[in-house]
C-alpha cells in the first residue's frame, strides 16, 4: 500500500501456517486469473478493474527487468551509510503519527532517495554495519526513485506503464511517489487494511492509482497482497494530513502528521464495508477472508493495478524468502482539473504539486 502499515498484534504462527497449508493445497494459483488477467489477455486492457478495483497483469515486466531493478537497489543500499543521518524507522502501528508524523527525514524523502528501517530490525541492537545486516534491515526506500535514479526512471516512464495507465482510464497522470519495498524474510511487517488515497488525497475527487510490481514471487507465505473486491466504490475513510497545530500554529510539541477521520461507517456504505469494519483487528488469513478479502499470489514480473480507494492489506512475511516490490503511485494532474491536497505529507518544494508527468518526465 501507499504507506499505512499498522501492526495489529501478535500472530498465532502455528494456526496461521496450518491455514496456509490448507489454502495452498486447495487453490494455489487461481486468484490472479479469476481477477482480470484473462480479460486483459483478450485485449481490452481493463479486465475486471472497474468491478473489483484491481487487476493483475502477469508478465508485465521480464525477469531481466526485475533483476536489473533488484541489482540497482542492491547498489544503492551498498552505498548507503546508515550512520549518515538519524535512524528513521518506518512505523505502521499506533506509533505512526509520532514516528513518521514527527520525522523530518521522512518528509524530506518526497524529493529524495531515503532509507527506512524495519522496526524489528531496529529493535535488535546498534546500527547495522555489515553489508548483509544492513541490506536485511530495511523496510523501504523512497520516495523519488522514479525521478532521481536512471534504472527506476526508465521503468516508471516506459511506454508499457503509460499504456496500462491510459487503458485503465487515467487521462493526464502525474507521478508523486515511488517506493521499493523489501518485505524482509521473517521480519517483514504486515500492512493492515488501508486505502492508498488516505495518503495521496486529491480534490474534487480521488484519483490515485497504484502500480504494484512483483520483483520476486509473492506468495501466501511471504506476504502477498490481499484485496477486498468492490471496496473501491466506498468513500475514503481517513486522510493522513499535515497537522495545522504544527504547521500553522507552530506548536512543535505536536506531531507533524495526523489521521483525520472522514467517512463514518454506517448502513449507507454497504454490506461489504460493514463486514470489513467488524469489531477487532484482522490478525489471521481466516479473519481476512471473513471480512471479504481474497489473496493475490503472483509470479515475479506481475503487475497489480490498485484503485486508490481499494481496501487492501498484506500479512507479515513468515518465510525465509524476501518479497521485493517496486511501487508507483499516480494521480490525475492539474490538466484534468484535479488538485493535490496541500495537506498531504508528500510535497515538492513549497507544495502544490509539480510532479513529473507520466512518460514525459516534464513538470505539469
Automatic annotation (TrEMBL):
Cofactor section: Fe cation
Region (Disordered): 268-288
Record's keyword terms, sorted: Iron, Metal-binding, Signal
An example molecular function term from Gene Ontology annotations: metal ion binding
InterPro entries cross-referenced by the UniProt entry: Phytyl_CoA_dOase-like
Record's signal peptide: 1-32
Pfam families reported in the protein's UniProt record: PhyH
SUPFAM superfamilies the record matches: Clavaminate synthase-like
Organism for this UniProt entry: Rhizochromulina marina
Protein name as annotated: Phytanoyl-CoA dioxygenase domain-containing protein 1
Keyword Iron: yes
